[in-house]
């Protein structure tokens, strides 16, 4: 009987509009939730008989909510250095606890250190990343299992040997060449006083500090002799403390003639420390061929322009910074910095097909496709914005408009039911 189909259609309308109103309620209540992705209420018809004939049977309507996970929210400035947002595609990889195997994905980037130093967001999800070694390297094998919960204080109190020394200095071209022949080791032994020297502090594997002196004497036009030696010499196993020596040559314009210089001065040093501490090869960066980025020669007085040394005993972490490339850097109380993790971004072929979890997170599903993890800005991944948070993508004005529409549609569906009830009452009265 068509009246009954109309009654059922009215009931389906009540159910569909109620479901649509539920999406509005969720969207409005999460309008201030960081990284929240709204849900759009859409509808599809229910058909009992698609053939049009003299007797028509109503089918009704079905609610078909659509996730708007791929819709970008507005990035807003944030005060905390560990607040991060994503511009473009991708999700942060998180776990439900620091040592849990259950992986989830989120765009809620309001991360803070917990009592143990792990970064977690307001929903309690722990941020994951690739650990970075002392040389700034990490391994991306595409395996989510290789990711670790980011612990900001993991390096507190640890030691790292010096592996890189960068030196930029000018040698005065008007300096007179030294008299007499030069013999390697003369500066280290004190036989010859360097015309220019600067001490550089390096560190062994136990965090112990050692002083290496870079000494230079001019022997001819555009030609200098250099030595790298330890002071005191007893710090190293090398005879006389001498670690490297050779010629530094310059081009007529004062740039470095690397091809005419001794390779030993621009290779790796591996000091043998007499205190028994381990050491790693120290890469020396003192300029490039025909370059002005390291050692130079000019009429200005000899001077150290700048230098940098890594390694040392790492103290207490004072703060944590996250760069736009996803590098997590620990800043220690003494001002030194160290990269500790690299953040990946997870991407899906169909992010709108992800399964939602409480806490504004998601897990993969058959509709989303498989996950791929890569560095930010590569292979379809978006970029990370540091000191920023992604706001909810909910349009509040649109939600209030939808609320009115769904409320009116709900009232209309209820009117169908009361009208059919009156008509059925008339049928019942026929027997009187």
Q: What's the Cα radius of gyration?
A: 35 Å
Fraction of residues in β-strands: 25-35%
The overall pLDDT, averaged over residues, is: 92
Low-confidence stretches: none
Task: Please tally the β strands and state the result.
Answer: 32
CATH class placement of the largest domain: Mainly Beta
Tally of alpha and pi helices: 3
Main sheet attributes: strand count, strand direction, barrel closure: 9 strands, antiparallel
User: How far from one another are the termini?
Assistant: 21 Å
- Which structural class is indicated by helix and strand composition? alpha+beta
Q: Work out the helicity level.
A: 10-25%
Overview of the structural elements:
The protein is built from 3 helices and 32 strands. With 432 residues, it is an alpha+beta fold. Helix 1 (2-29) runs antiparallel to helix 3. The protein is rod-shaped, with a radius of gyration of 35 Å. The mean pLDDT is 92.
Provide a concise account of the structure shown.
This protein is 15% helix and 32% strand.
């Amino acid at each position: 009987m068509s009246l009954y189909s109309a009654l059922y259609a009215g009931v389906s309308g009540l159910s569909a509009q109620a479901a649509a109103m539920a999406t509005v309620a969720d969207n409005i209540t999460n309008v201030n939730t960081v990284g929240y992705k709204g849900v759009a209420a859409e509808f599809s018809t229910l058909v009992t008989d698609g053939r049009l004939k003299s007797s028509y049977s109503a089918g009704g309507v079905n609610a078909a909510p659509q996730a708007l996970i791929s819709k970008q929210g507005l990035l807003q400035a944030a005060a905390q250095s560990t607040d991060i947002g994503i511009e473009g595609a991708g999700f942060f990889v998180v776990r439900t606890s620091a040592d849990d195997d259950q992986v989830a994905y989120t765009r809620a980037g309001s991360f803070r250190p917990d009592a143990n130093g792990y970064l977690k967001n307001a929903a309690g999800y722990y941020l994951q990343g690739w650990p970075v070694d002392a040389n700034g390297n990490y391994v991306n094998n595409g395996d989510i299992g290789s990711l670790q919960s980011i612990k900001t204080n993991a390096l507190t109190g640890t030691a790292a040997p010096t592996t890189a020394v960068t030196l930029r200095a000018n040698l005065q071209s008007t300096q007179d060449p030294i008299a007499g022949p030069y013999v390697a080791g003369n500066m280290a032994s004190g036989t010859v006083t360097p015309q220019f020297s600067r001490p550089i502090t390096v560190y062994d594997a136990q965090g112990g500090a050692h002083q290496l002196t870079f000494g230079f004497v001019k022997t001819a036009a555009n030609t200098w002799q250099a030595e790298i030696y330890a002071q005191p010499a007893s710090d190293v196993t090398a005879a006389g403390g001498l670690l490297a020596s050779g010629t530094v040559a310059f081009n007529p314009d004062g740039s470095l003639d690397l091809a005419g210089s001794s390779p030993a001065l621009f290779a790796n040093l591996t000091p043998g420390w007499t205190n028994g501490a381990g050491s790693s090869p120290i890469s020396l960066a003192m300029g490039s061929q025909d370059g002005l980025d390291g050692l130079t020669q000019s009429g200005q007085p000899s001077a150290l322009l700048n230098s940098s040394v890594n390694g040392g005993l790492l103290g207490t972490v004072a703060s944590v910074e996250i760069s736009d490339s996803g590098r997590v850097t620990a800043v220690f109380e003494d001002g030194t910095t160290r990269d500790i993790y690299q953040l990946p971004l997870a991407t899906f072929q169909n992010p709108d097909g992800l399964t939602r979890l409480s806490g504004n997170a998601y897990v993969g599903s058959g509709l989303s496709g498989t996950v791929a993890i890569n560095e930010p800005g590569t292979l379809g991944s978006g970029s990370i914005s540091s000191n920023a948070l992604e706001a909810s993508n909910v349009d509040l004005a649109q939600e209030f408009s939808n609320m009115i529409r769904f409320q009116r549609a709900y009232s209309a569906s209820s009117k169908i039911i009361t009208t059919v009830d009156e008509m059925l009452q008339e049928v019942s009265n026929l027997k009187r």
